[in-house]
Specification:
It is built from 19 helices and 15 strands. It has 507 residues and is α/β, with parallel strands linked by helices. Helix 2 packs across helix 3.
Length: 507
C-alpha cells in the first residue's frame, strides 16, 4: 500500500498508446471472412504469406505508398490513413513507429532516419564528414590507435617536420596523468583553418602515453616518438631546431627529500637543447634573408625555413614545480637567486612557467569576472560550458556534423603575432607611436593590439646581442615602436583568406 502508481503524464500517454496498438492487433486477429480484407490487415494476419505476395506484386504496386517495405492503407478520401485499425495513436507513440518513406527514396537507396526524415531530406549523412566536435569549437578526427601514430627515430628523421610543436615529456609508466589534452586542445581550436594546425610531436615513454591516449585519440595531427627528451639523437630526429615551440614537461612525482631536485630533468633537458648546434654555419648564414612577402610565408608550415644555428635560439618553455629553480635555466642570467619569479628574465622572456602562475590567474578572475572571457580565449581556445560538462562526464570529444549552427562557432577571435619588419604594418616600425598602430590595426584590419614582443638587446648591434624577447602588455599610448618589434593582437576569424590575410600569423 505504500507504493503508489506513477501518474506521470508521459507514462500515461505511452501506456494509452501501447493499449491502442494491442487492441489493433486483437481486432485484426478476430476479423472474420465476411469483413473485406485490406492489405494492411493481411500484413498483420499472415506475415509469412505476405512476404511472398509482396515480392511477387512489387512491380504492380510500385506506385502505391510504402512503409518499410509494406503497403500503407489508403483512406476513402484517397489519402494515407494515419490511424491504426481506426485508433488514433498519440504523438509520443508515433515517434516510436516507422515513418513513411516514398518508394523513389527506397529505390535510390538513400538512408532516412526516424522522426527526422523531414529534417534530413536535404542532408546526406553518407557524404558528410565529421571535421569538428559536437560543439563546433575544436577540430575532430575519428579515433586512432596510438600504434598508428608512433614513429621510430628513422621514420621521424624521414618526415619533413617544420613549424611544429615538440613536447618533451618525462614520465614513468605509473606516473599520474597530467592531462595532455589541455595542452593540445587550444592548438586544435576550430577558428584555425585545418592547414594552419601545427603538428604536435610528443617525445617520451609510450607506456605512459598509452594511458593518456584516450583523451588525445580524437585530435588530429599528433605523432609520438618513443624516446627520451635527453637524447640528442631523438631531438634531431624531430627537427627540434625547426619547431615553432618546444615544451618541456614532467609528470614524475617530486621527491619529498629535496624539493629543489623536483625540476632536475626538465632543467637538464632545457640546458641540453641550448648546448646543441645544428647544420652548417656558413650554409645557414647564406640562406638567411628577408622574405618579400612575409604575410604569405608567416606561419606557413609548408615552407621550410632555415633553423637556428645554436640551440639557444630554439623557442622553448619549461614547466617548473619550484619557483626558485628558475635561476638554473639561463646560464647568462645575472638575476639575484632571491628574485621573485615574475621579475626574472626567463619568466619575462616566456621561457619558464610555474604552477604558481595559476594562483594569480585565479585571483584576477575573482576580482574581475570579465577577465575570465579573455583568459578562456587565450588559454583554452574558446571552450564552452557545454563542452566542459561533456569532458567532465568522461565522454571525451565527440564528433558532430557540420551544421550552420556548429559552423557559426568558428567565427571567434584568436591570438596572433604580427611583425613590424615587413608587411602592411611595416610603416609603423619606423619611429611611430603605439597609439598610431592601435588605431590603424583596429580600423583597417579589425585587429585589437594587446601588447608588444620586443628584443631584449634591440639597441645593440654587436655580436653580443641575443634573440631573447620579452612581453610588454598594454604599452602607453606614446610608446615608441621599433622595426624589430612583434605585436600581439586579437585576430578576427576569416572564412576566406586573401593575399593580404593575417589568418596565418597565429601564435
Amino acid at each position: 500500500n505504500l507504493i503508489k502508481k506513477c501518474k506521470c503524464k508521459h507514462l500515461m500517454t505511452f501506456r494509452k498508446g501501447v493499449r491502442a496498438i494491442q487492441l489493433v492487433g486483437k481486432t485484426m486477429a478476430n476479423k472474420t471472412g465476411a469483413t473485406p480484407a485490406t492489405p494492411f490487415s493481411a500484413a498483420l494476419s499472415k506475415p509469412l504469406l505476405n512476404i511472398k505476395n509482396s515480392v511477387m506484386a512489387k512491380e504492380e504496386n510500385g506506385s502505391k505508398p510504402v512503409m518499410n517495405g509494406r503497403l500503407v492503407p489508403i483512406g476513402p478520401n484517397g489519402l494515407v490513413d494515419e490511424t491504426y485499425g481506426g485508433y488514433h495513436i498519440s504523438y509520443e507513440v508515433k515517434k516510436l513507429m516507422p515513418t513513411n518513406k516514398p518508394a523513389d527514396q527506397q529505390k535510390n537507396g538513400k538512408m532516412e532516419v526516424g522522426i527526422a526524415d523531414d529534417q534530413a531530406k536535404d542532408f546526406d549523412f553518407a557524404k558528410t564528414e565529421m571535421k569538428y566536435d559536437s560543439t563546433g569549437m575544436f577540430h575532430w578526427t575519428p579515433a586512432r590507435s596510438i600504434e598508428d601514430c608512433i614513429l621510430d627515430r628513422n621514420q621521424a628523421a624521414m618526415t619533413v617536420l617544420n613549424g611544429h610543436v615538440v613536447v618533451c615529456l618525462f614520465a614513468d609508466p605509473d606516473s599520474p596523468l597530467i592531462g595532455l589534452r589541455n595542452l593540445v586542445m587550444p592548438l586544435r581550436a576550430s577558428n584555425f583553418h585545418y592547414h594552419e594546425l601545427k603538428h604536435v610531436v610528443i617525445v617520451g615513454a609510450v607506456d605512459y602515453l598509452r594511458r593518456e591516449w584516450k583523451t588525445l585519440q580524437n585530435l588530429p595531427k599528433i605523432s609520438v616518438l618513443n624516446g627520451s627528451p635527453l637524447s640528442r639523437a631523438d631531438l634531431r630526429a624531430v627537427n627540434v631546431n625547426l619547431c615553432d615551440m618546444c615544451v618541456i614537461l614532467s609528470a614524475k612525482v617530486p621527491s619529498n627529500d629535496d624539493p629543489t631536485l623536483a625540476d632536475k630533468e626538465a632543467i637538464l633537458a632545457s640546458l641540453n637543447i641550448k648546448a646543441m648546434t645544428f647544420g652548417d654555419i656558413i650554409t645557414n648564414i647564406e640562406s638567411m634573408g628577408d622574405s618579400k612577402d612575409a604575410l604569405n610565408n608567416m606561419g606557413d608550415t609548408t615552407v621550410k625555413r632555415p633553423g637556428p644555428i645554436y640551440g639557444t635560439n630554439v623557442p622553448m618553455i619549461t614547466e617548473l614545480v619550484n619557483d626558485s629553480n628558475v635561476q638554473f635555466l639561463d646560464q647568462d642570467d645575472d638575476d639575484d637567486p632571491d628574485t621573485e619569479l615574475y621579475l626574472t628574465q626567463p619568466f619575462a622572456c616566456g621561457t619558464a612557467f610555474a604552477v604558481s602562475v595559476l594562483d594569480s590567474l585565479m585571483s584576477t578572475t575573482y576580482f574581475n569576472q570579465n577577465a575570465l572571457t579573455l583568459i578562456r580565449s587565450l588559454i583554452t581556445g574558446g571552450a564552452t560550458p557545454e563542452l566542459e560538462i561533456i569532458l567532465a562526464e568522461g565522454a571525451g570529444l565527440r564528433g558532430g556534423y557540420s551544421t550552420p549552427d556548429t559552423l557559426s562557432h568558428r567565427d571567434r577571435c584568436r591570438v596572433g603575432q604580427i611583425s613590424l619588419s615587413d608587411g602592411p604594418l611595416a610603416t609603423f616600425g619606423e619611429g611611430r607611436k603605439y597609439q598610431d598602430l592601435f588605431v590603424a590595426s583596429l580600423r583597417n584590419y579589425g585587429m585589437l593590439c594587446i601588447g608588444l614582443y620586443r628584443l631584449r638587446d634591440a639597441a645593440l648591434t654587436t655580436v653580443d646581442a641575443t634573440s631573447k624577447r620579452y612581453v610588454i602588455t598594454n604599452p602607453p599610448f606614446d610608446f615608441g615602436l621599433l622595426p624589430t618589434d612583434q605585436v600581439y593582437v586579437l585576430l578576427p576569424f576569416e572564412r576566406k583568406q586573401s593575399r593580404f590575410s593575417f589568418s596565418e600569423t597565429e601564435v
